[in-house]
Amino acid sequence: MVRIIGILAGLFFSIAALWALATGAYTVASQGYLKEKTAETEFHKRPRALHLASDGPFGHFDKQQVQRGYQVYKEDCSACHSLRHVAIHDLEQLGYTEAEVKAEAASWTVPGVDPNTGEATTRPGMPTDYFPSPYPNDIAARAANNNAVPPDLSLMAKARDEGPAYVHSLLAGYSEIPASLNQEFPDFETPPGLYFNPYFANLNLAMPPPLNTEGQVTYADGTKASIDQMATDVAAFLVWTAEPTLGKRNQTGWPVLGFLLFATILAYLAKKQVWASAKRRKV
Amino acid sequence: MSFPWAQHYQPKAPLMRWLDEKLPLPRLAYNAIGAGYPVPRNLSYMWNFGVLAGFCLVMQIVTGVILAMHYAPNAAIAFDSTEHIMRDVNWGWLMRYSHANGASAFFVVIYLHIFRGFFYSSYKAPREMVWLLGVVIFLLMMATAFMGYVLPWGQMSFWGAKVITGLFGAIPVVGEPLQIWLLGGYAPDNAALNRFFSLHFLLPFVIAGVIILHIWALHIPGSSNPTGVEVKSESDTLPFHPYYTAKDGFGLGVFLIVYFAFVFFMPNSLAHPDNYIPANPLSTPALIVPEWYFWPFYAILRAFTADFFFIEAKLMGVLAMFASILVWFFLPWLDRSPVRSGHYRPLFRKFFWFGLIPSVLVLGYCGGSHPEEPYLMLSQVATAYYFLHFLVILPLVSAFERPEPLPFSITEAVLGSDKKAVLGDNAAAAS
Questions:
Q1: Are residues B268 and B294 part of one domain?
Q2: Does the pLDDT of residue A179 top 90, yes or no?
Q3: Before B126, cis peptide (omega within 30)?
Q4: Exposure pattern of A46-76 as b/e (b: 16+ CB <10 Å)?
Q5: Which residues of B are part of the catalytic machinery?
Q6: Mean pLDDT of A243-259
Q7: Bigger pLDDT: B54 or A187?
Q8: Do A238 and A164 contact (CB within 8 A), yes or no?
Q9: Nearest Cα to B327, choosing from B131, B42, B46?
Q10: How confident is the model at residue B2 (pLDDT cuts 50, 70, 90)?
Q11: How many domains does chain B have?
């Protein structure tokens, strides 16, 4: 009885699935197999490969590079983008001394409370402060940016496919609309206030090219600030902001795996020894 | 319980004798996982995964309890509290990555455990109850994992919760009120997050309870084995300790190496980047997918793209998705072949390796892809096969198949001869 009901139920679900298949096949036969081509499907590019010191199981932070990335963030990105998960004292991890971090903190203006009146005011930052947001709220951010909210950057390197490479390609990837795109999709246009960027999913991006001239920042360590260099450094910086513990994670991993390998070899030998008697044991 | 030749617990130290009289816990352990539990001597490494699954549960509970000390189940701060764990809590990143990847590890292990059961028909008498309890554990695991994924309150958390609770909305008449009742609102929000956290904390302990029943039910007939031939005499078995404790110890070591390689070196490789974006009800991600371990079932859900007579496509998908797991409950009565092991079932074996396994892999792949052609057609074919396999092919194969000859006993399968086993010590002692 169970089997008869089972066979009927099985046929029911299979035929329903095949019915959906037949319907889908009919649609494909009548309308063609491929989905509609759009400018986005044809001209969106995957990020270019980017190699950073933080890649892979031996990854660690190139502190000098991350410091340069911080400089680009501070002088350029921070005008619009917040970094709300990162505290200013975290900079000590990048090799700044306590005094340097204190001075650095003071160069940021953070929201505060007037001790005499209780009114909202601003004050110089302290190392315990988090990096301040450029806008008091999303509405202010929208108002200042053509109705687009600049996203928080703390986790950007983990919140996109191939995060660091994406950041690098996007920042250095602004271009004119290619002629072939205009030929293939004459209707495609970049509305005023948006900017064409093939690395952005729908090709038109609200962010104006943030890195547009060589030497936009003057690196303290003398590195030549080409657009590509600045984009790479910011990507490295955002890998750090997304996961400051990355270096420690990789460093911890190797001894753990080494110990486990050792313990597993011992466990294997113990198993072999114990079972040797079972192979002999007839009864 | 257990076989007559099982060794008996004999406490030697006075303290142990005292304890044995008051609370015989050491005796329980001795009879369950010690020398007092005889196990078939021919178990392969495919029999390691029960112990590994138990280990995963303990790992998840330990890391989970620690995470719960720092996590805040409130929609306004849940995302930030997760980042707080990653950045400020000592070794918080290790706890969270161990927990997130631990869920994946748990499902890897449990799928191998379940498919071992399919191949060796571990569900057959006298182990039906073991199997039924196992399916219950799997369902509880799915609920727990789903609710856990909602807790970080990222984009995929939010939209995953919305899609999955939306399934209940497909039920006729009561669907919509039911969905609102489950969520505590019209869309996932603080009420949903709070109850998910509460249940995510509770269910693992329910799972632990059902696991105790699962093991209890297992220890009545004892483990099955790769030949599927039942234990006949003492020579067919070995005491669990030290033989299988040693074997499980080695298996655990291999498992931990792979698991911690993921935790330390690619902790986000199985997760979705969108979940590092805070939940935003106003912005739908381009592709909403659950975690990889739900992809086969998600593919079945999405495979039904056309209304089937009077049943709406969406409802059909929901019914099929639930049926795809519920059908496992009926396996002991659908598969009537007297032979258990796939090694001695030529026809069954072919359908297993060339039918079931590919169809589940195809479903898994399609479930993680965009719901478009050719993935929809592939998942429709695979779904059709999946249901045919369990509900039509298994009953028919078991009626028509001619199994290959079985070994007389486990001892013969291992040693090539069974003379000793027939006239074994017990036979001699009995006569």
A1: no
A2: no
A3: yes
A4: ebeebebbbeeeebebbbbbbbbbbbbbbeb
A5: 219, 223, 247-248, 291
A6: 96
A7: B54
A8: yes
A9: B131
A10: confident
A11: 3
Joined tokens for residue B158: 């939010």
Average pLDDT over residues A214-243: 92
Residue A172: pLDDT above 50? yes
Report ipTM for this prediction.
Answer: 0.92
In whole angstroms, what is the distance from residue B56 CA to residue B68 CA? Answer: 18
- Whether residues B140 and B197 share a domain: the answer is yes
A14 touches chain B (CB under 8 A): yes
Q: Fill in the amino acid letter for B316.
A: M
Distance from the B94 Cα atom to the nearest Cα atom in chain A, whole angstroms: 8
Asked if B137 and B249 sit in the same domain, the reply is: yes
B12 with B45, same domain: the answer is: no
Give the model's pLDDT for residue A40. 83
Interface residue A267 vs chain B (CB under 8 A): yes
Q: What is the pLDDT of residue A283?
A: 46
Q: What H or E segment, with its residue span, contains residue B132?
A: helix B128-150
- What is the per-residue pLDDT for B387? 97
The CA distance from B212 to the nearest CA of chain A, in Å, is: 27
Q: From residue A2, give the alpha-carbon distance in Å to each of B121, B125, B189, B325, B392.
A: 17, 16, 43, 17, 11
The pLDDT mean for chain A works out to: 91
Same domain, B62 and B97: yes
Q: Which CATH architecture has domain A46-82+152-270?
A: Orthogonal Bundle (1.10)
Q: Which B residues, 128 through 167, put their C-beta within 8 Å of a C-beta on chain A?
A: none
Mind listing the pLDDT tens digit for each residue in B146-180?
999 999 999 999 999 999 999 998 888 898 999 99
Give the residue from A38, A72, A49, A84 showing the smallest Cα distance to A204: A38
The CATH number given to whatever domain includes residue B101 is: 1.20.810.10
Residue B12 and residue B135 in one domain: no
pTM of the model: 0.93
Distance of CA B50 to the CA centre of its chain: 9
- Domain residue ranges in chain A: 46-82+152-270
Residues B4 and B105 in one domain: no
**How far is residue B195 from each of residues A6, A133, B18, B73, B210, measured CA to CA in Å?**
36, 33, 45, 9, 22
Contact with chain A for residue B91, Cβ under 8 A: no
Q: Which residues of A142-161 are buried (b: 16+ CB within 10 A; e: fewer)?
A: eeebeeebbbbbbbbbbbbe
Same domain, B328 and B377: yes
Chain-centroid distance of CA A6 in Å reads 49
User: Among A218-222, A274-278, B207-211, which range has the highest average pLDDT?
Assistant: B207-211
A256 closest CB neighbour out of B80, B247, B264: B264
Judging by DSSP bridges, how do beta strands B237-239 and B38-40 pair with one another? antiparallel
Rounded Cα–Cα distance for residues B248 and B258 (Å): 15
Tokens of A159: 């919140």
